[in-house]
From TrEMBL:
TM stretches of this protein: 12-34, 62-83, 90-110, 150-169, 176-197, 203-223
Species: Celeribacter arenosi
Record's protein name: DUF4386 domain-containing protein
InterPro entries noted in UniProt: DUF4386 (IPR025495)
Domain of life: Bacteria
Coiled-coil regions, chain positions: none
Length: 233
């Protein structure tokens, strides 16, 4: 029974925890602190003015999201290495779904860049009528939101698989598996609402607090995994 991590596995877990921390920090910084306050999907002209007034912050949010997507790809590989002894096929499937999410999140950043090109005049807009630039900018911002939730569909499935891997593993408490699995359910429901019942999305938003708690707890376990491993020279 594999109840203790080897020193190599401890190093893998800690590296995964560091990447997870980067993902959480960059994700919150980009969406909540830098970009979110600038965007009002009900006010195209107001949003355009806010972005132009804080263009550096908006561009920084794109950079943070790019770092997050890259870190997520690395995390997918490290978690595969860590949980491969538990269930090789399931660990591989979980890695694939998380990598797909990383690709979607990364490529979806082009919608944000398109908004920047329109607002800064880097894209020719002379043929557009007054107000159309702002409207198109808002459309790209809205597409980014939908693209993000599309990525979370794959991440939700990954979370269910990761939760199952944690549940099967003997070197981590099963409560973490329950939390990660519940987070996956929240992501899947939230994404489904965004696409098929957007009027309910706002009322469901508080449920994402569960995902924050579950992911932060798992991240902390990974960072402190050394205390669960034997002290080997």
């Amino acid at each position: 029974m594999h109840t203790r991590l080897t020193q190599t596995e401890v190093a893998t877990a800690r590296s995964a925890g560091l990447l997870y921390f980067v993902i959480i920090a960059c994700g919150i910084s980009a969406e909540v602190m830098l970009r979110g306050p600038l965007i009002d999907l009900m006010d195209a002209s107001g949003t355009a003015e806010e972005i132009l007034a804080s263009l550096g912050s908006f561009r920084l949010s794109i950079a943070f999201d790019l770092v997050m997507a890259l870190a997520d790809a690395g995390l997918a590989i490290l978690l595969f290495v860590l949980f491969r002894p538990v269930a090789p096929t399931l660990a591989l499937a979980a890695m694939v779904f998380r990598l797909v999410q990383s690709v979607i999140i990364g490529s979806n950043l082009m919608n944000l860049q398109a908004a920047v090109l329109l607002l800064t005049g880097a894209q020719e807009t002379a043929a557009l009528a007054s107000g159309q630039v702002d409207a198109m900018t808002l459309l790209f911002l809205n597409l980014h939101g939908h693209g993000y939730d599309l990525g979370l569909v794959f991440f939700g499935i990954n979370s269910l698989m990761t939760g199952a891997l944690i549940w099967r593993a003997d070197f981590i408490q099963k409560a973490f598996g329950v939390g990660v699995s519940l987070a996956g359910v929240v992501y899947l429901i939230g994404s489904a609402l965004r696409f098929f019942a957007p009027e309910l999305s706002a009322s469901f938003a508080p449920a994402y607090g569960l995902t924050a708690i579950a992911e932060a707890a798992f991240c902390l376990w990974l960072l402190s995994a050394g205390k669960f491993a034997p002290n080997r020279g």
